[in-house]
Design brief:
By secondary structure, this protein is of the alpha/beta class. It folds into three domains: 8-58, no CATH class; 69-334, TIM Barrel, CATH 3.20.20.70; 340-426, no CATH class. The protein is built from 17 helices and 16 strands. The longest helix is centred in the middle third of the chain and has 27 residues, at 198-224. It is globular, with a radius of gyration of 23 Å.
Length: 458
């Protein structure tokens, strides 16, 4: 007799909850996870996710950016949340478990409802009741903002990069603007201050003027008139030129004057925040500038947001220090890399297949990500022993190569199915190697940032 693929293999011990009307839990079958409601098994559909969010509110996202330390842990695969939760349980920080951009959704073939529901089910599965956020990340279009807000996302990251323009050298400083900024010293805490020259003021207005108008329009549309309750993050980091402290002050001052209330702002810091590798640049300069950026954020009442924050271990202590322990950090690709490191370790033949597929299509992936990837430094793995494959993930160029080609791999249906099957087969009732890997790796992020420990919940 063929085995029953719907038979329960094991129950998730942290998932059982009751609210007096219903008892729910989750279990694993050969077909994947199922939801048990009052003893009956159900597929993980949006309808049942809605039920959980209504009946068990801890499974619904909430605005979290007012908390001191928040960590965006994007889950491109929909299976990383157990590891993210395991990592963050031990630290005094709050996760944004649901975090994707339109680019990521397009490359992974997922949708807003899918990633929101995954966060709900995984939160129940892991019994995580401390609150989590849901971020519509790097959104540029009003239709997408309207979409995520209608679904209950609790954070929107507005990407203003399409409205940031080069400085053409023209002086467009009005008399009113000159009166607001020139000839004044703006005192910040920790002994910092901001002083504008006319050239700096003109440059800031030329580069960011259109972006500020766009941000103010979006704020009025959704937060003032639409009365959105979600946190509002301003992203000005997706541009080639760093945001100077003077420009940062100008941006914050002008938006505050227009009534915009940011929970977080993501400047374009000096140096390079490449994908999945450590910071590249002058760390002394970064330290000098983040001290002022953090003081500006405190002056205007929001937190700094650090994007492309995966694996920036050399500067994490500076982030923790100068923000005085109040910041938002975004990661995503590093969790994908840990998933692929597991494939390289546990199923080298499948890894070789995925590597070859990506290698043949890396130029397509480069269209979506601007990285300093030197393919000449990605070794030919044909002569590698299987045991040597995981070491690729300790090298910068191979890490970036695998990082940016996730969409190339996941859009191949056969390869996608094989990868998901491999990850599922690694998990047993006693072992979850992916969660263990993420607990260690994301935990290293939190530890290096200086996040205080807390007692692990039962």
């Amino acid at each position: 007799m063929a085995p029953d693929k719907n038979a329960i293999l094991w129950h998730y011990p942290k998932s059982q909850h009751t609210n007096g009307k219903h008892t729910v839990s989750m279990a694993r079958t050969q077909n994947g996870d199922v939801l048990l409601v009052d003893g009956a098994a159900h597929a993980l559909t949006s309808e049942w996710a809605d039920f959980l969010r209504a009946q068990f509110p801890f499974t619904a996202p909430i605005p979290v950016l007012s908390r001191d330390r928040t960590i965006g842990v994007g889950d491109r695969l929909g299976i990383a949340a157990p590891g993210h939760i395991a990592a963050i349980r031990g630290y005094d920080a709050t996760p944004v478990l649901v975090q994707q951009s339109m680019r990521e959704l397009n490359l992974t073939g997922r949708g807003w409802q899918d990633i929101l529901d995954a966060g709900t089910f995984m939160t129940l599965r892991e019994g995580y009741e401390d609150g989590f956020g849901a971020d519509g990340d790097h959104l540029k279009q009003e239709k997408d903002i309207r979409d995520v807000l209608s679904r209950g996302f609790t954070m929107v990251t507005l990407d203003c990069s399409d409205h940031i323009t080069p400085d053409d050298g023209q002086d467009r400083v009005s008399q009113d603007m000159a009166d607001r900024y020139l000839g004044r010293t703006f005192a910040l805490d920790q002994g910092h201050s901001i002083v504008f020259t006319r050239g700096e003021l003109s440059e800031a207005n030329n580069i960011y003027g259109k972006a500020l108008a766009f941000a103010a329009h979006v704020w009025r549309t959704f937060w003032e008139e639409g009365k959105a309750k979600a946190d509002f993050e301003l992203s000005i980091d997706e541009t080639a030129l760093p945001t100077t402290p003077v420009q940062h002050f100008f941006i914050a001052s002008e938006l505050t004057r227009r009534g915009v209330r940011m929970a977080t702002v993501a400047p374009r810091f000096c140096g390079e925040f490449q994908k999945g590798i450590d910071y590249i640049g002058d760390i002394n300069q970064f330290e000098r500038e983040i001290a002022v950026h953090a003081a500006i954020a405190r002056h205007f009442g929001y937190k700094l947001s650090i994007h492309s924050g995966s694996d920036k271990f050399s500067i994490f202590p500076l982030v923790g220090k100068y923000t005085q322990g109040r910041y938002h950090l975004k990661t995503a690709g590093t969790s994908w890399l840990e998933a692929m490191r597991l494939i390289a370790s546990r199923d080298p033949a499948l890894y070789r297949q995925a590597h070859a597929w990506a290698l043949a299509r890396v130029d397509e992936a480069r269209q979506y990500y601007h990285v300093k990837l030197d393919m000449a430094r990605v070794p030919d793995i044909a002569d590698f022993a299987d045991s040597d494959l995981p070491a690729l993930f300790d090298q910068e160029d191979p890490r970036q190569f695998i990082h940016i080609t996730y969409g190339i791999m996941l859009k191949n249906p056969a390869l996608r199915d094989a990868l998901y099957k491999a990850w599922a087969d690694m998990t047993t009732s006693q072992q979850d190697p992916y969660a263990d890997a993420l607990k260690a790796h994301i935990g290293r992020h939190l530890s290096t940032l200086g996040v205080p420990h807390k007692k692990e919940q039962a």
